[in-house]
Amino acid sequence: MADIHCPGVTVASARTLRLLASSTPPLWGVRLPSIRQSWAPKAPADVLEFALDPRRWLADAGDTLQSVSATAPDPVTSSDLTALWCGKVNGLAVVCLAGGQPNTLVPVSLTLHTLQGRRHTEAVTVQINLDSEPDDVPDWPSLADGTPIIPNALTDPDGRVLTLGTSQVKQVSVAQLLSPDGASHLTSPAGVPLLNQVFRSATDTLLLA
Predict the structure, then answer these.
(1) What is the tens place of the pLDDT at every residue in 69-103?
(2) What integer pLDDT is reported at residue 39 of this predicted model?
(3) Has residue 145 got a pLDDT over 60?
(4) Which of helix, strand or coil describes residue 201?
(5) CB 3.0 to 4.6 Å from 162: which of 27, 150, 154, 187, for a disulfide?
(6) Which Pfam family, an example, fits this chain (predicted)?
């Protein structure tokens, strides 16, 4: 599955970090030191997107980023660093950060989920500089269930966000899945035919990811 480019949504290269991967396997019994990366500093009043680029990290496995979640320390005041939204944009794991207290270093964790079932959490820090006074974190538009609307959400001509309904998980029973030409059964990544299987299907916002 290839990433679909979403025009009009671009994260500056200065605020994009490549997800690091060791070029050689570690020696048996030797643990490589953990390297925590840092994004470019932001001012307290800035509202900016920051990104991790996992494409090279996933390329060797033929895998693709599917979804992203982000966590930051729970805010104590209305001007503390807050993740307004996060998601997959043009193959990148992107989080939009607002707020922050001057002269602090704040950790943000991004959890990446892939099409082949991999999950990886990367902790990144962001320095809050002294270039502005603290400001209240702005409101961000969201769906009725509170899900933030990210910039690459699909909309109709009237600007309404297209969704598959209220976010929920359903059980879906599949009696038979065939290839598009009807010649063979589709299989899972493990090679098991997708026949008489039960799957979990989650409704969500439709995205150009």
Answers:
(1) 999 999 999 999 999 999 998 889 999 999 999 99
(2) 96
(3) yes
(4) strand
(5) 154
(6) Gp77
Task: State which CATH number among 3.30.465.10, 3.30.230.70, 2.30.30.30, 2.60.40.10 fits the domain covering 13-128.
Answer: 2.60.40.10
Q: How far apart are CA 62 and CA 124, in angstroms?
A: 25
Q: In what order do the strands lie in the sheet containing 119-128?
A: 37-42, 119-128, 104-114, 65-71
Kindly give, in sequence order, each residue whose CB lies less than 8 Å from that of residue 112, ignoring residues fewer than 6 positions away. 19, 52, 54, 65, 67, 68, 93, 118, 119, 120, 121, 122
Give me the residues paired with residue 206 across strands. none
Q: Is the pLDDT of residue 186 over 50?
A: yes
Residue 125's contacts (CB-CB under 8 Å, 6 or more residues apart) are: 36, 37, 38, 39, 105, 106, 107, 108
What pLDDT does residue 7 have?
55
Average the pLDDT over 190-197 and give the result: 64
Q: Torsion-angle region of residue 100: left (phi > 0), alpha (psi -120 to 50) or beta?
A: left
CATH 2.60.40.10 placement within the chain: 13-128
pLDDT at 72: 95
